[in-house]
Specification:
By secondary structure, this protein is an alpha+beta fold. The protein has helices at residues 12-34, 64-71, 98-117, 147-160, 182-185, 201-219, 234-242, 248-252, 269-279, 292-297, 305-311, 344-363, 374-387, 403-422, 426-442, 446-457, 465-482; strands at residues 44-54, 76-78, 84-93, 123-125, 164-169, 173-178, 190-196, 224-225, 228-229, 259-260, 315-316, 318-325, 328-335, 392-395, 399-402.
């Protein structure tokens, strides 16, 4: 959520005050847009990577407090489940060798953290959903001890009024019930942040939405949940269901979910923040003493804490972000589409593909979003979640095609052009986009490797299901630490 909260009960007056303050924040934000108060455009990005903790058997390790104490690095933070932590990579420049530098820094940080985590009997795994996570691990006591997670859990269930129903039809079928939001903790992702100007924001957000299906197809890495083989990126359906505050009746009425793709292309970042206040009741109605209009009147920058807190409880796959750094406000597109992993180099390659492609599409004189419907982009997204690297997606001027063919023939050249526009060194650009190219040529991503290795051990071998998942994850972890791109991983 990005904010610390300590209230345990909320009154009707709290909710009224919070709604009023969000509206006042919106008024201040609109004024800031009119008065051009934002930091200039720079090719800066930040990355967040969520991690899973496992024990010596590769089962979940519920030790995030111990691990964080051992790591002693502010870049690592708690996440929702006790088997999760997160690394926040400091913002850096995309241009030059910036992406190479980011890769080296992330590897160094994770290697150092892994060595310290091992002292607690834990190991870190970068994967979309931990394959060895079972229903027996999903209980309220698995929530991290930070009070904000228990509070969020209570507010979601107060809004729902009933248990969470997880129902996913994939290669196999899953139906489970949960009495907490812990299933959400199974979803570990990579989040790319891109700082843009207010004028450029709608172009970049629309571009990010348009390519989300392709991103997901190429980067899928979550084929297993609770011991079952489901979708190639099961994380999407799981997150949509686990964080849903709606009852069945509200879904039938068309009430918007809190995890959603969206419903239209936008013309201003204000559209998204206004939707937040219009459609979503507050989950955490914590108000500050700030009067944002008065802050603007004296020439300072408002924190807009209510707007930010409310936005943090609405989970768009591409989310708008307002932030203040050194008294300077700025805006970011937060791309939340991809799972974590499989390796650091794969993650940075995914980032290079994303940064380059959205830049090229945002700069295009004839925007891609003027050539395809929003519903087509959403259909691409969910088809990619289902089929992964085998997905067929729609693209203007091409029609329906294999995502891998679309990337090879159309999108990689665009991504290269975009990275050139960002000023990325040719050698960096070619190396990272070359990984995406090889992934498409070999038809191998994290999800396909996991599935093939599992079936080698289970279907064709003598392992039972649990041991096959453990054995697969053990090999996955070894390859992950070698930082070899996933398209080169063997099926032993």
């Amino acid at each position: 959520m990005g904010e610390e909260v300590d209230r345990v009960e909320f009154t009707r007056a709290d909710r009224t005050a919070f709604r009023d303050q969000v509206h006042r924040n919106l008024d201040a934000f609109a004024r800031m847009l009119r008065e051009d108060r934002f930091a200039p455009d720079r090719p800066m990005t930040g990355i967040e990577i969520e991690l899973n903790l496992v024990d010596e058997r590769c089962d979940p390790a519920f030790k995030n407090s111990e691990v964080l104490s051992a790591i002693e690095d502010d870049a690592f933070q708690t996440e929702l489940g006790q088997f999760n932590i997160e690394i926040n990579v400091p913002p850096g420049q995309i241009d030059g060798i910036g992406l190479d530098t980011m890769e080296s820094n992330i590897r160094d940080s994770l290697n150092a953290a892994e060595e310290k985590a091992s002292r607690t009997g834990s190991s870190m795994v970068v994967v979309g959903i931990l394959p060895t996570l079972l229903t027996e691990h999903i209980h309220r006591e698995a929530l991290s001890t930070n009070p904000r997670y228990a509070l969020l859990n209570d507010q979601i269930f107060a809004a729902r009024g009933e248990d969470v129903q997880i129902s996913i039809d994939g290669i196999e079928r899953l139906q489970v019930t949960a009495d907490s939001i812990v299933p959400e903790a199974a979803c570990t992702s990579t989040q790319f942040h891109l700082q843009v100007t207010p004028e450029a924001f709608p172009r970049y957000w629309n571009a990010a939405q348009a390519i989300s299906g392709v991103q997901l197809a190429i980067g899928a890495n979550s084929p297993f949940l609770f011991g079952k083989e489901l979708l190639r990126e099961t994380r999407i359906a799981l997150f949509e269901q686990a964080a849903d505050t709606r009852t069945h009746e509200l879904k039938t009425q068309g009430v918007r979910p809190r995890v959603w793709f969206g419903e239209r292309w936008i013309t201003s970042i204000f559209d998204l923040f206004e939707e937040n206040s219009r459609y979503y009741p507050a989950l955490l109605p914590v108000t500050s003493d700030e009067d944002p209009i008065a802050v603007l009147d004296r020439g300072d920058t408002p924190a807009l804490s209510e707007l930010r807190l409310h936005n943090g409880t609405i989970y768009r796959w591409n989310r708008p972000v307002y932030d203040v750094v050194r008294e300077k406000p700025h805006l970011r597109v937060e791309n939340r589409v991809l799972p974590a992993g499989p390796t650091v180099v794969d993650t940075i390659a995914n980032g290079a593909f994303y940064f380059g492609l959205v830049r090229a599409l945002a700069d295009d004189e004839r925007p891609i979003w003027s050539q395809m419907s929003f519903s087509a982009a959403e259909e691409n997204f969910h088809e990619a979640a289902k089929s992964g690297i085998d997905a067929e997606v729609f693209w203007p001027g091409v029609g329906t095609a294999r995502a891998t063919e679309l990337v090879l023939r159309r999108l990689l050249p665009l991504a290269s052009k975009g990275l050139e526009a960002w000023g990325v060194d040719t050698s960096v650009r070619d190396r990272l986009l070359g990984i995406i190219e090889q992934r498409c040529l070999t038809n191998r991503n994290g999800a396909s490797w996991q599935v093939d290795e599992f079936h080698r051990l289970y279907t064709k071998g003598s392992h039972d299901r649990k041991d096959a998942l453990r054995g697969m994850l053990r090999r996955y972890r070894d390859h992950m630490h070698e930082n070899t791109p996933v398209h080169e991983w063997p099926i032993d």
